[in-house]
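subagent[fold] <- orchestrator: predict structure for attached chain, return tokens only, no commentary.
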Amino acid sequence: MNPAVTLGLVAAGNAEFVPGIKVDALSVLTYLSAQMVGAFIGAVLCWLAYKKQFDQEADPAVKLGVFSTGPEVRDYVWNLVTEILGTFVLVFVVLASGNWGDSATKTPAGLGWLGALGVALLVVGIGGQGVMTATEILAEAAIALGHDAKKTEVAGMAQRGGVQAGAAAAGT
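subagent[fold] -> orchestrator:
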């Protein structure tokens, strides 16, 4: 989960995060701590994956762009407003999805309804064959599940100093 969702569940007055895990100070602290530890581990793994590129890159802004996004136009008030709007949409969809579902059985829909939407994935890495294999597996899995799937890849870029990219898209 995202810390914004955790805090949204607290603000919404939910009694439980999931059945059996009450919303209290200890569980909120545990969730937020685990989310921060997970984010840190992910950042360290990302840093390790790109370490050789970082060693060769002099511009610190390029390195920062791997771990975060920055606005092209720096307007701190407007940038804050857009972040608040984006976070609101994320939290609203996650919280609202718990209220949608089958009213006869009182079963919430959860986020399963997202499966009805088309899915597009971009797989990017500094290697070559692993990215192409992952793209192939994603496309084949979508086809095996009965979806119309397309894939594309750019081969050979990793050897020329670029990144390797593959994309897979599937729809119902």
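orchestrator: received. Logging for downstream: The longest strand covers residues 164-171. The chain has a mean pLDDT of 74.
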